[in-house]
């Protein structure tokens, strides 16, 4: 029996290593979404288990590689949400967050029971910076290394997919950070994460950290490298892209960039940069960009967190313009004033908003759409009336019809 068990362990280890090497060789960027866990930490963004399942299925359609589904040891609601996903979310790997505590690993094992072994995993974390060691954990470097080795090994006995992230990595001494990674990989970690927990890095410093890690972790070839950036300085997307350039295999993001404080790297923004700039990054992902706007709208509806109107990729005004010159160009060819067309991200289309800055061509276009007189006198009359409207008046179709029906001066 022990011979068979040992053979099984060796076979599993061989398969895991083959999968890791496949991902490393492919050069693909794997998206790991944490909307359901880190994103939900944004005040007011609480999701019910059924909401999480709906978002998880939308993320699956969008092509994410893995889902940070929750923190089972923190609440029964997270356990319930994860159990609702088991067997229904089939393509992404479902992962659960754990502290370096064996009971947390047991809670994750319970929540993910029934999910195929290669489609379930855990992500362990522990603070490693001087601040976390001294004030939060009150543990020495050696004590933390021991905890990492013991709990990652314990997790690897229950899960094929085991990620380890040193919390507050960006404020941890680089030599100690590399030692933490070495211990974790030796204990069975298949992914090591680099989290900029308080969002303090610049792209240059992020790239430097990742190059140092790859140069100074001797067993790093046995694991994937993941990055997780917060947006406290507005640089989460830029730092994520720097991480990709530096060789990261996995990027962790949230839909609409939601998350605690200033949020996380925005999934839709990172995905579109990679799609539009293959010449620079030379790496593909499996994200279906046509699913991005529907996904963003779903997360907005279920969390109640509304992004800024001009939010890149999914904001309600990014395909809208009131400027007459731009409207004229867009009517002649949408590419004149767009980086990508609405259908590329699953949006409904251009919005030529009528207002004080609109020109004749846009007014004529709207009149034609409404089946109204679009001759030159009608266009000039409507344009004059629009320019006299008080600030804040919304020119919906009913208002346009009403203004167009008014008698023209001199008629």
Structural class: alpha/beta
The main β sheet shows up as: 8 strands, parallel, barrel
Shape: elongated
Strand content: 5-15%
In order across it, which strands form the biggest sheet? Answer: 1-2-3-4-5-6-7-8
The percentage helix is 40-55%
Q: What is the H/E order?
A: HEHEHEHEHHEHEHEHEHHHEHEHHH
The N- and C-terminal alpha carbons lie at a distance of: 99 Å
Secondary structure: number of strands: 10
How many helices does DSSP assign? 16
Mean pLDDT: 91
Give the low-confidence spans. none
Radius of gyration: 26 Å
By oligomeric state, this entry counts as single chain
Task: Please describe the topology of this protein.
Blueprint: H1 2-26, E1 30-33, H2 49-62, E2 66-70, H3 76-85, E3 93-99, H4 102-111, E4 120-127, H5 130-137, H6 141-156, E5 161-167, H7 174-187, E6 191-196, H8 203-216, E7 224-229, H9 236-245, E8 250-253, H10 267-276, H11 278-281, H12 292-303, E9 320-321, H13 324-332, E10 351-352, H14 360-369, H15 376-387, H16 397-404
Parallel strand pairs: 1-2, 1-8, 2-3, 3-4, 4-5, 5-6, 6-7, 7-8, 9-10
Helix pairs in contact: 2-3, 2-12, 3-4, 6-7, 7-8, 8-9, 9-10, 14-15
